[in-house]
Amino acid sequence: MEDGLVQFALTAFLTLAVVVDPLGAAPIFIALTGGLEKTERRKTLSRALLIAFGVTVFFLLAGKRLLEHLGVTVHAFAISGGILLFVTAMPMLFGRRAGLQAPKVEEKRTAGEDIAIFPLAIPLLSGPGTLTAVLLLANRAGDDMSRLGVLAGVIAAIYLITRLLLHVGEVLTEYLGEGKVHIMTRVLGIVLAALAVQFVLNGIAGFYDSLIHPLNQRQ
User: Fold this and answer.
1) What CA–CA distance (Å, rounded) separates 111 from 98?
2) Distance separating the N- and C-terminal Cα atoms of the chain
3) Nearest to 75 by CA among 196, 198, 207
4) CA distance 108 to 88
5) Which of 89, 105, 87 is nearest to 44 (CA)?
6) Count of C-beta atoms within a 10 Å radius of residue 93
């Protein structure tokens, strides 16, 4: 690869590694799936990663056009993601995870709940930060197909690394036991709530900056 392409790949990898944050997602994965059996936990992890990868690639290819067509800004996307994440954090703060755990097969048909979709895939693994970063990187790549291909490869690599790290989290769940996982659930509920508020603040700050910046250019 050319030097410029290598630099772009490195920038993309570091950026997505930070925003996806597989190390940070590992303890949250433990808390959310602590009540599941080993087989179901692995299936949930696989579904979450496939969904997150699919959503991220979709935003790579069509995210900017879709948001522009709908008239939705990335700032509004960040705020909505933060609100959804805060809703997830509230039951964890009080030690209740029933609403977050994957229901049994027969319950899914009526409840339609699956933590692989929410909150693992969206917004934890492919949240506003990740999708915004992908949109910015795709905009930087422009119409250069080689850069877009590299970016797609980097996304795949990030989620493969995430798969390995979350699998370690699964092993750690078995080692800790259900009691300690309940304690972690309350602690991580606070972390999730803070993360949710940060998403909202970032969205508000970004929206405010988008309003002020054009005014400064006119002066």
Assistant:
1) 13
2) 43
3) 207
4) 18
5) 105
6) 15
Looking at this protein, which amino acid is placed at residue 100? L
Amino acid at 213: H
Q: Other CB atoms closer than 10 Å to residue 142's CB: what's the count?
A: 9
pLDDT tens string, the chain, 219 residues long: the values are: 566 899 999 999 998 988 888 877 887 888 788 778 888 988 999 999 999 999 999 989 887 788 778 888 777 877 877 787 787 778 777 765 433 344 444 444 334 458 899 889 988 899 877 887 898 788 788 888 999 999 999 999 999 999 998 888 767 666 766 677 677 777 877 877 887 888 788 889 888 888 886 655 555
What global pTM score does this model have?
Answer: 0.68
Helices (H) and strands (E) in the chain, counts: 9, 0
Place of tokens 């509230």: 90
Q: What is the DSSP string of 63-128?
A: IHHHHHHHT--HHHHHHHHHHHHHHHHHHHHTT--TTTSPPPHHHHHHH---TIIIIIIIIIIS-H
Between CA 216 and CA 210 the distance in angstroms is 10
* Inter-helix orientation angle 74-93/128-141, to 10°: 160
